Amino acid sequence: MTLFDIIALLLKLVFVLAVVLNAVPVVIWFERRGSAWMQGRVGPNRVGPFGLLQPVADVIKFIFKEDFVPKEASKFYYHVAPMIAAVAPFAAFAAIPFGSFLAIGGQQVPLQIASLDIGILSVLAFAGLEVYPIMLAGWASNNKYSMFGALRGSSQMVSYEIALGLSLVSMLLIYGTLNLTEMVVYQDQLMFGFMPRWGIFLNPIAFLIFLIAIFAETNRLPFDLPEGDAELVAGYHTEYGATKFAMFFFAEYVAMIMASSLLITLFFGGYALFPGLETVIAGIAGALQLSPEWTQNIRAAFQVAGFIFKVGCMMFFYVWVRWTFPRFRFDQLMNLGWKILFPLALVNLLFVALVIAWMGG
Amino acid sequence: MSDSITTTEPRQNLSDFYNPNVLVNLGPSHPAMHGTLRVMCRVNGEVIEDSTCEIGYLHRAIEKLAENKTYHQWIVYTDRLNYCSALTNNIAYVMAVEDILGIQVTDRCMWIRVICMELSRIIDHIICVAINALDMGALTCFWYLYHWREEAYTMIEAMCGMRLTTSYARIGGMSYDLPDNFDELMAKFIKGLPKSLDDVEKLLTTNRIWTDRTRGVGKLTREQAIDLGVTGPCLRASGVDFDLRRDRPYYTYPELDFEVAVGLNGDVYDRYLVRIEEMRQSLKILKQCMKKLPKGPLWVEDKRVFIPNKQDVYTKMEVLIHHFKIFMEGIDVPPGEAYNAVEAPNGELGFYVVSRGGPKAWRIKIKSPSLLHFQSFETSAKGSKIPDAIAILGSLNIIAGELDR
Question: Which residues of A touch B269 (CB under 8 A)?
């Protein structure tokens, strides 16, 4: 590894961290203002322009609150849980490509922190860690409501992860790779001459299953059962306050962004440009007389912007759904997971496999 | 509370019930326990095997206070019964006192009281439906409906100067006449609310998640509902076609054209539907009331209860003395007793007033629907899950102020 590589890697790390860390307050702001907009309210509008600094005020409030620990709590796990919650979704970002590559001084810098051949597995592994903080927090708090939250969280995980995995396998069959960048490259082409060859068009059922599953994975309404605010007070984080609660809260949004990124990469072409943008880039490059190297850099910038745009749309969808639906009951979620999604995913997988075999792989 | 009527098996030992490993305390401080209800549930996983309700956390001895306050002074206490529909409580109480006095209020007063009762029925049902949806995670419906609740409160504020604790009714009349712009306010309300109701129905009524969560949950059969003394929308949701407004009419209800919404299954879903339909019917009634509202005097011409005009109090000697007597001594109610029940938003709200003469009641007993509804909770919650219990409790619309009194 040369010095150049190390510097590039560090810069990428900083970039991803900065973007995600700054995206969270924006998403939280949007959640509040967006929900207010959907509900005919005003929403927070006092702190900063349009209330944009509200999340900052929230963070300051959380930090300065008393760091209360219940007397009977299991101290170590009680403290560890929010940390895992905050770190796990960040780690999952490592394998997600957010652009093709930059060309700097004759070297190529792939816009991805870790270009892994098993990228998708690494993302899933870290995403799967997200259930541990729920279980640990629920168990360690020594509170019955937290305990219920933890139980629900773990049973929820079991019931949706299989469907999620199966829908993923059917996509892997189509793409023929575990490497996320290669998946994006596969999708960066046209079908029938006009349609982008995105996963959602190739395999819409897998997309639906995956979509439902990531709502469950990120504990968002209608699947926010571990939290279940009216039933379980606050579910697994009932006993958490101050910064530790902020970490759970923050983690929820990072997990949402992460899950959206994964969904975008698998089903919406990831960083692949929208059809037609290539001509725009060629036009810009032609007008400014750019070298091929700089043309590539401009293209990469468009790709990153496009990726962020797609994730933003997905986040809007998250907020939209949350403020539309009531919550499931947890046995209904199990029914949905085991009796509908699981067989559906299985049949879909079989169908995809047969089609691929018929088409000659 | 004793065993619910439908339970045949004896209750397990109290020590079993209190065994901390199986006991989950819903309330008295819990986000879904509107006010200060307490339900102790013996759970197996999330299934409630048995539950028992403890009441009294909001007990303020309101009935006892009635023995030490004059009839007028006690009106403010009725506001604090079901604080979501204070207007109905005020009116139901003064109706009972007027019965003992043998007073027939004026036409205009009757119509205004009907308007008040229907308005408070709407805001009470808004609370019930909205909070029930909120407890099940549908926050947007809550805001859609609460907008119109605020509009209704603005209207009530214009009527009597208060939003929540109205104390609008007086024995023999109302404290104020309707404001000048009341027609406008009401027209806006009648026009706007159905739109929000439609929105909420679109979000909930055919929503698969909502129907799954509410259908067959908290079922009370016709017989159970009658046995347990359930009244109002919850009784009608169980399929009993009974509404005091129609079956024991008071005031101007016989002149009004409205339908009584009746459900089939007595589950949370039917209660929701019944309430939504009742809101629509109430709007229909309000529309008719606004058309038929007669001009004329608001107060009865009865020296015993007549509260004179403020302007006259300041300028006329006799009127000043009369005013002084009414407020310093109170109204002299002849010995006798009266029970008066109205169809309050929650069910049959009755006031039993016993007078032995003088300005204070000898005894007042309130028949509050919430108390009886809360006893049905034990029956309907058995065998359901914790989220169901929350849904049932929301659909019964138990108001702690009315429950504990």
Answer: none
pLDDT digits (tens, 9 = 90+) for B345-359: 888 899 999 988 888
**Residue B317 corresponds to which tokens in the numbers above?**
């000697």
* Amino acid making up residue A39: Q
Reference B50, options B95, B14, B85; nearest CA is B14
Half-sphere exposure of residue A43, counting CA atoms within 13 Å on the CB side?
Answer: 21
Instruction: Give the DSSP H/E element, type plus range, for residue B49.
Output: strand B47-54
Record the pTM. Answer: 0.84
| Predicted confidence (pLDDT) at residue A257 exceeds the cutoff of 80 | yes
Q: What is the CA radius of gyration of chain A?
A: 22
Residues of A with Cβ-Cβ distance to B133 under 8 angstroms: 326
Cβ of A34 under 8 Å from any chain B Cβ?
Answer: no
A9 belongs to a structural domain? no
Q: Residues B88, B200: one domain?
A: yes
CA count, 13 A, side-chain hemisphere, A112: 24
Q: How many CB atoms lie within 10 A of CB A239?
A: 23
A227 touches B at CB < 8 Å? no
Cβ of residue A215 closer than 8 Å to a chain B Cβ: no
DSSP tag of A337: I
Residue B178 Cα, gap to closest chain A Cα (Å)? 29
The answer, for A339 touching chain B at a CB cutoff of 8 Å, is: no
ipTM: 0.80
Q: Chain A interface, mutation test: which of B26, B43, B47, B140, most A Cβ atoms within 10 Å?
A: B140
Contact (CB<8Å) A329/B138: no
Instruction: Please tell me the distance from the alpha carbon of residue B363 to that of residue B371, in angstroms, as a whole number.
Output: 19
Does B246 lie in the same domain as B139? yes
pLDDT digits (tens, 9 = 90+) for B117-151: 999 999 999 988 988 888 888 888 888 888 888 88
More confident residue, A272 or B399: B399
Which residues, in sequence order, are bridge partners of residue A190? Answer: A196
Task: Establish if A327 touches chain B: CB-CB under 8 angstroms.
Answer: yes
What is the domain range of residue B28? 16-51
Read out DSSP for B53-120? EE--TT---HHHHTTTSBTTTTHHHHHTSSTTSHHHHHHHHHHHHHHHHT----HHHHHHHHHHHHHH
Whole-angstrom distance, CA of residue A182 vs CA of residue A117: 9
CATH code where residue B259 lies? 1.10.645.10
Confidence at residue A1, expressed as pLDDT on a 0 to 100 scale: 67
Q: How far apart are CA A92 and CA A101, in angstroms?
A: 20
**Is residue A14 domain-resident?**
no
B113 in the same domain as B34: no
In a domain, B95, yes or no: yes
**Cβ–Cβ of A40/B212 closer than 8 Å?**
no
Answer whether the bond into residue A326 is a cis peptide, omega within 30°: no
Tell me the torsion sign for CA atoms A274, A275, A280, A283.
positive
Residue of B nearest to A222 (CA): B137
